[in-house]
Design a protein that fits this description.
Layout: E1 3-9, H1 14-25, E2 32-39, E3 42-49, H2 52-59, E4 68-74, E5 89-90, E6 96-104, H3 107-116, H4 128-140, H5 146-154, E7 159-167, E8 174-179, E9 184-188, E10 191-195, E11 207-210, E12 215-220, E13 223-228, E14 234-235, E15 240-241, H6 246-250, H7 257-263, H8 265-272, H9 277-289, E16 292-297, H10 299-316, E17 320-324, H11 325-332, E18 340-346, H12 352-363, E19 367-372, H13 378-382, E20 385-388, H14 401-420, H15 426-460, E21 467-471, H16 475-490, E22 494-498, E23 515-520, H17 526-538, E24 542-548, H18 552-557, E25 560-564, H19 573-591
Bound molecules: fructose -6-phosphate.
């Protein structure tokens, strides 16, 4: 998830305008920054790794000449955060520059094809193929206009993109296009702008044109022309007046980042389905060879590991040991050895306890694998192989979209391993792959249909002194995560257990009205879980059940129920069942008058460069 912005001005230099807009977009990504501008038949570029202020203090981002330019602030997905991988990227003849937000899934194939045609690539990014494709189109068909050359190029891209290109051939235009990544145009009497988000240009204009998926827009000082990529038909769209304050705009109209990030999950999950296959294969190969596998993490990432241990066991018949990172050295520090493999999972890639476990493992010659959201973080530097979870920056302190993204990547890894080991039939593989593909839609349906119900449950229980969260099997991890969310942002002391364990002590806490949340997928644990619900009900507990649609048995037992779509395979169920629990924590915090984005005593780890 990167930020893009560009403009064509009637007067003055575009560079300082771009710089200021990128600062407003820095929350979208902050590991490198760059600008390109055209002046007097020349293309000027400045870019480097680092936060915008750092790069500006060295390069002075404001002194590029020209009234037209594009800029980018990056959240690395392909290629480490290095100068060479910073956008904009140029073609071989340095006639054009492109910025891109998204992921090009078929970039390896395109790159190979273009290299065979003589194109020289400078970076390791997926983005660079776009500008070489446009160059190739113009080479093979010189009569193509700049916009048509872009149009033909993007028809070959699989994946997601919002792109913007400038060219010396038509130096008064910017050509932009969008597919599954946001793109908006802003206009006033002195300029025209494009951006990945409205906040980028909100101080300059409140007149915006939202671009839809599958559209290409050509910007010039005369205005904008939108075309459908599919058939080049022209689309007429009028600008809208945006009445958001800058603060509302950054949150895209949501009251809090946490809610925005919960709602972003369909899109972040889609991104996790665009992982480069060879990284997953490599991970699966290391896991296959390992004598013992530890899944090491803290907090929410630990819950992803716990769920993953069920995925690896059920799909690939691999036993793994989820370990809380702060205990790893004490518990396994002496026994870990050259035959051990440690998979460290950390959104930030910087969590001290996780890195301490990794250090200990490395000193004892174990193999370290990493799963993180921050390419370039310490974890990526110390891992033998790592995979990026591609969720973009998470601003709310409570992990939400990064949790479901971790689960999706881990499920894909388990599937890869299962395939390698011949442990699942082709039919089962296809079934699971299809369900994975549908997850973004399923999660979207849950958010859209259940939010109001969850809000009512939160209202009802806002004064509860304690909560229980119970699940069985893989849903134990979901229950733990629901409990952590509620505690950390709504400050409700809560307890989570595998449901079977509750009668060995915790049940003594239950008294009439005590809220107990049950996570109830219709898997093999369903029957036994009903027994656990009855036990709690018999003691007067108020049952809140997260169930599959149409689960009449549990509906009749529950005081309140929240439904998720039917037919989610067990190994994927935490991805859907956790969403109502995230919403519950969020609305409990709101009802109790707390800010969900800034829980006391907690702060997000950030990458220190
Ligand atoms: C909970 C939360 C924390 C983190 C934990 C690990 O909402 O955000 O529990 O999950 O601090 O952080 P990472 O994943 O960055 O290692």
């Amino acid at each position: 998830m990167c930020g893009i912005f560009g403009c064509i001005l009637k007067d003055g230099n575009a560079a300082p305008v771009i710089h200021a807009a990128l600062k407003r977009l820095e929350y979208r990504g902050y590991d490198s920054v760059g600008e390109a501008a055209i002046h007097d038949g020349k293309l000027y570029i400045k870019k480097d790794r680092g936060m915008i202020d750092e790069v500006h203090s060295v390069l002075n981002l404001d002194d590029l000449p020209g009234t037209i330019g594009i800029g980018h602030t990056r959240w690395a997905t392909h290629g480490a955060p290095l100068e060479v991988n910073a956008h904009p990227h140029v073609d071989c003849s340095r006639q054009m520059a492109v910025v891109h937000n998204g992921i090009i899934e078929n970039f390896s194939e395109l790159k190979l094809e273009l290299e065979n045609r003589g194109h020289i690539f400078e970076s390791k990014t997926d983005t660079e193929v776009i500008v070489h494709l446009i160059e190739e189109n113009l080479k093979s068909n010189p009569s193509l206009s700049f916009a048509d050359a872009v149009l033909e190029a993007i028809k070959r891209l699989d994946g997601s993109y919002a792109i913007a290109v400038i060219s010396l051939a038509e130096p008064n235009k910017i050509v932009c296009a969008r597919h599954e990544s946001p793109l908006v145009i802003g206009i006033n009497e002195n300029a025209i702008y494009f951006a990945s988000d409205i906040p980028a240009f909100l101080p300059l204009t409140n007149k915006a044109v939202l671009i839809d998926d599958g559209e290409l827009v050509t910007l010039s000082l005369e205005g904008f022309e939108i075309k459908k990529i599919r058939d080049s038909s022209v689309v007429v769209r009028k600008p809208k007046l945006i009445d958001w304050t800058p603060e509302m705009a950054v949150k895209q109209g949501y009251p809090h980042f946490m809610l925005k990030e919960i709602f972003e999950q369909p899109s972040t999950l889609r991104n996790t389905l665009r992982l480069q296959e060879h990284y997953l294969d490599l991970m699966a190969t290391f896991l296959d060879r390992a004598r013992e596998v530890f899944l090491v993490a803290c907090g929410t990432s630990y819950h992803a590991c716990l769920a993953a241990s069920y995925m690896f066991s059920k799909l690939a018949f691999l036993a793994t040991y989820p370990v809380i990172a702060s205990e790893f050295v004490e518990q396994h520090g002496k026994s870990v050895n050259i035959d051990s493999t440690i998979m460290a999972v950390s959104q930030s890639g910087e969590t001290a306890d996780t890195l301490a476990s990794v250090n200990c493992a490395r000193q004892r010659a174990a193999t370290v694998l990493g799963l993180t959201n921050v390419i370039g973080s310490t974890l990526t530097r110390v891992s033998r192989v790592y995979v990026g979870q591609q969720s973009g920056p998470e601003i709310g302190v409570a992990a939400t979209k990064t949790f479901t993204a971790q689960l999706s990547v881990l499920a894909q890894m388990a599937l890869r391993l299962a395939k390698k080991r011949g442990k699942v039939s082709q039919d089962e593989m296809d079934f699971l792959a299809e369900k994975l593909e549908k997850l973004p839609e399923t999660v979207n349906a849950i958010i859209q249909t259940q939010e109001e119900k969850v809000k009512q449950v939160a209202k009802k229980h806002k004064d509860a002194k304690t909560f229980f969260f119970l699940g069985r099997g893989i849903s134990t991890a979901t229950a733990y995560e629901g409990r952590l969310k509620l505690m950390e942002i709504a400050y409700v002391p809560a307890i989570a257990f595998p449901a079977g364990e509750s009668k060995h002590g915790p049940i003594s806490l239950v008294e009439p009205g005590f809220p107990v949340v049950f996570v109830c997928p219709k898997d093999e644990t369903h029957k036994t879980l009903i027994g656990n619900i009855m036990e709690m009900k018999a003691r007067g507990a108020s049952i809140i059940a997260v169930i599959e649609e149409g689960d009449e048995e549990i509906k009749q037992l529950a005081d309140d129920y929240i439904e998720v779509p039917r037919g989610i395979p067990e190994v994927l169920s935490p991805i859907t069942f956790v969403v109502p629990l995230q919403l519950l924590a969020y609305y409990m915090a709101v009802e109790r008058g707390y800010s969900p984005d800034t829980p006391r005593n907690l702060a997000k780890s950030v990458t220190v460069k």
